[in-house]
Amino acid sequence: MAPRFRHRGRVTADGPLIRVRIGHGESVRRALSGTGLADPTIEVPALIDTGAMGTYLDGTVIDAIGLRAARAAFEVQTAVGAPHLWDAYEVRVIFGEGYELNVFGARLDEYALPGTRCILGRDILRRRHLAYSGRTNSYVLELD
Amino acid sequence: MSARLAMESATFETVKERLLAEHRGKFVLIHGSEVIGVFDTQGDALVEGYRRFGYVDLFTKRLVRRERPLTLASVPPGRRGSKVPAPR
Question: Which residues of B touch A68 (CB under 8 A)?
Fold first, then answer.
């Protein structure tokens, strides 16, 4: 069966990047539909990161959309130091022409990779398949 | 973490053991110092919270003994998020 979303991209000096749009999560749209809630989406470059268990968002993206924290208790273990709590937000990650995933993403305020404002981790990659070709320095992302 | 969410996290710690005994695996919704309810899914908890309070910061958390930390191996030293000690 063909995947619902398929993308082939080059692996840049910053890693495998993909442009996605970020918007409000499903819960607030469900709760406040018809109330005039502004529902903007913002297009950002995102890093596909197999070393990340979850999704992470730059604080500027969160503030620009006007997201509210939905879960304060994301405990995150980075490469150094002890786990600590990060604010988290329910968001829609929109791929291509409208393939959407609803996920919870942690806020990255003091962390920025060149060229990206979002990290897509294994919470998204587990949806199907990520393949890397060293010969062509490219990747294929498939999602269901 | 905002002051409100810090308060809600503290509220959670005070009720965690009681709720764990009765509702393990479900999701608690807290607003300020008030426990609003326990729900089957996090989405249900958020919808209830947004309907009651509008689109504001909310505290929801799964009722488990110990939450497994998310790993983010690629964050370099000195580039971490807001440093709030995890409850023990």
Answer: 55-58
